[in-house]
Structure formats: C-alpha cells, structure tokens
Amino acid sequence: MKQILGSVSSLIVGACCLGLTPLLSGLTAVGLGFLINDLILLPLLALFLGFTLWAIFTASKRHKRKASFYIGVVASTVAFGGLWLFKPLSYAGFAMLIGIAIWDFLKARKGAAESQIS
Length: 118
What we know:
By secondary structure, the chain is mostly helical. The chain has one domain. Helices cover 83% and strands 0% of the residues. The chain is built from 5 helices and no strands. Helix 3 packs parallel to helix 5. The model has no long low-confidence stretch (mean pLDDT 78).
C-alpha cells in the first residue's frame, strides 16, 4: 500500500511539474494555486520519488526480488530527468513506477494466497 501511495503521489506532483491543465485548474479551484511553483514542486517530487523507492526497496527485500528495485531506480531517474530532457520520457517513468507497484501488489497477493493454502 505504501508503494502505491508513493507512486500515485509522485505521479500527481509530476503531472503538476509537467503542466497537466486539468490538475492545475483543480488545484487553483480549491485554493492551492500557490503549489504550482517549481521551487515547491521539484523538491516535493524528489521527496515522493524517494518515498516510492524506499517502499519498493522494502518490498523487494521482503519478497527477495531485487529486480523491481533496480527497475524502480531507473523509472525514477527517467521520470525526474524527463522533466528537462523530453516530457514523454517522464510520463514513461511514472507509468513504470505505477506498473512496479501493481506488479508487487499482485505478487504479494499471490504469496499470501499460497501461504494460506499451505
């Protein structure tokens, strides 16, 4: 759950950094327009990406599967670096982070189901 929360919050902050119009309009409508500033959003994005990586790392230790952590590091780097290099790269990085969270969630459910059967 922590991993999904971290991924979704990283995605929301990243969408603000990328200038996604519906999200920016919604923030302004509820009185949070002051958050639409790169001096606030970039450190917040780095914080949420770090939280996401920490959640992926703890899950990969629990499941003894380091590949998801390494993919998460690449996805976070692509998501953050894509803000300056090529915006579609950033979207791809965020999609990879969401995919890792879903993958880990499904693996955890499968493991829990197998332990109940045994």
